[in-house]
Specification:
The chain has about 450 residues and is an alpha+beta fold. Helices cover about 30% and strands about 25% of the residues. It contains 14 helices and 27 strands. Helix 4 packs parallel to helix 6. Bound molecules: uridine-diphosphate-2(N-acetylglucosaminyl) butyric acid. The site of uridine-diphosphate-2(N-acetylglucosaminyl) butyric acid has 25 residues, from helix 1, helix 5, helix 6 and helix 12.
Length: about 450
């Protein structure tokens, strides 16, 4: 319905405050269902994804009030046991209610989740974890059903350090009987935030932020007050936006340590960034150099910054190579950047970006959240006017994106698109993203 009209070529200048982390708050909202009393969550960003997960937990019986960045969640005595398709289809993180539902209600039925179309995004590792905790899992026609009268602690080795699987298993394990060890766990700062919230509710979680997480099951949890960590990806997006435009911007409310993998690469590319005035300050770039980037689980370079950094590297002198190892389909912004004058060659999981190619304005579309951000940054750097469509993706994860950019001097406005909206039919429960088939057709039992 809407698009962003951007007139590029103006260096960003000023100060921007980063909101609370989207990827930290979503699991924490689900985890609030584990307690028997209300929690207050602070610094909650007002995002479409946050509202969607709140609607889902309301459906499960919770009461939710969101005002001025403060979220009060009163969990139900016992959560409802069914999460329907129309509520979970909107985003992948909906699947994170499964662990808490199973732990509190002993059973859960949930449709397979939707989300950004950046890969097939299976859920086998979540199910492996629940199964090892003693749950009986069946699936059929786009629905997963899990049952466990009493979850029991176990040793769970993840084949890949999946963020979502680590979170889901952790939430189920805190109320399990006995001890659980999660090996090859994800180490992202959002996992540490979740563990801190769980511990402040009375859980016993040690080792979050390392590869081995140890959980001692407890009988019950009590609601608490918790402040969400700053969004490292939003912070990174503003740092790169400043660099793309040759601007000078102070990014406030950041934890520099969480941004180290990105800061190291931006430094290599010649972007001057310093810790100053309690934040991170980007100074105008003198000469941007091409670099090699490989996305990896934390503390590697974040896949959620790959598209934005690609926009930046289109402006560098010399070629760059970006290798995407986390998601297999996260290069959909390439064709859109090419419309703006970029020259990028795809070869398997790598993109070779030709440097020294000034960008020009074009009409482009966001295919997913971070791709949308990348196109906005390219538009800010480009000569002339750009229009970025499919803003529903951007609204999922950036709070007041264009308002914050405008306050930094960007010429960016949201307009209603002239063209008529196209509707795509999607068969419930079977397809995710752009007509991609989910991994669970037919029926069966997980073992
Ligand atoms: N994977 C499996 N099996 C599983 C789970 C994951 O094979 O059971 C694979 C995925 O297919 C993917 C890889 O593991 O190739 C990484 O997936 P992961 O589970 O770590 O990602 P996620 O939990 O689905 C979260 C973020 C993403 C972010 C990734 C990686 C949330 C709500 N989402 O997704 O954020 O890209 O971790 O860091 O926390 C975004 O914010 O734009 C976004 C997509």
């Amino acid at each position: 319905m809407y698009e962003l009209a951007i007139t590029g070529g103006r260096p960003l200048k000023g100060t921007v405050r980063v909101s609370g982390s989207k990827n930290a708050v979503l699991p924490i909202i689900c985890a609030a269902l584990l307690a028997k009393s209300p929690s207050i969550i602070e610094d909650v960003p007002d995002l479409v994804d946050v509202r969607s997960i709140c609607t889902l937990i309301e459906h499960l019986g919770a009461q939710v009030e969101l005002e001025g960045g403060k979220l009060r969640i009163t969990p139900p005595e016992k959560p409802d046991t069914e999460a329907p398709y129309q509520l979970v289809r909107r985003m992948r993180a909906s699947f994170l209610v499964l662990g808490p539902m199973l732990a509190r209600a002993g059973k859960a039925k949930i449709s397979l989740p939707g989300g950004c179309a950046i890969g097939s995004r299976p859920i086998d590792l979540h199910l492996k974890g629940f199964s090892l905790l003693g749950a009986d899992i069946t699936y059929g026609y786009g629905t997963i059903e899990a049952r466990a009268r009493q979850l029991t602690g176990s040793r769970i080795h993840l084949d890949f350090p999946s963020v979502g699987a680590t979170e889901n298993i952790l939430m189920a394990a805190v109320l399990a009987k006995g001890n659980t060890v999660i090996e090859n766990a994800a180490e992202e700062p959002e996992i540490v935030d979740l563990a801190n919230y769980l511990n402040s509710m009375g859980a016993s979680v040690r080792g979050a932020g390392t590869k081995i997480i140890r959980v001692k099951g407890v009988d019950h949890l009590t609601g608490t007050t918790h402040k969400i960590i700053p969004d490292r990806i939003e912070a990174g997006t503003f740092l790169v936006a400043a660099a793309c435009t040759g601007g000078e911007v102070l990014v406030e409310n950041v934890i520099p340590e969480h941004l180290q993998p990105l800061l190291a690469k931006l430094g290599e590319a010649g972007v001057p960034i310093f810790e100053e005035q309690g934040g991170l300050k980007v100074y105008p770039v003198k000469q941007l150099r091409g670099i090699k980037v490989k996305t990896m689980p934390y503390p590697g370079f974040p896949t959620d910054m790959q598209p934005q950094v690609m926009s930046l590297l289109c402006l560098a002198s010399g070629n760059s190579i970006i290798t995407e190892t986390v998601f297999e389909n996260r290069f959909q912004h390439v064709s859109q950047l090419e419309k703006m004058g970029a020259r990028i060659k795809l070869s398997g999981r790598s993109a070779i970006i030709e440097g020294d190619r000034p960008l020009h304005g074009a009409v482009v579309k966001a295919s997913d959240l971070r791709a949308g951000a990348a196109l906005v940054l390219a538009g800010l750097a480009a000569r002339g006017e750009s229009r970025v469509g499919r803003l529903n993706h951007i609204d999922r994860g950036y709070e007041q994106f264009e308002q914050k950019l405008r306050a930094l001097g960007a010429r960016i406005t949201r307009k209603i698109r002239a063209e008529k909206m196209l509707h795509h039919g999607v068969h419930p429960g079977i397809y995710i993203g752009q007509g991609r088939r989910q991994e669970f057709p037919g029926e069966g039992k997980y073992q």
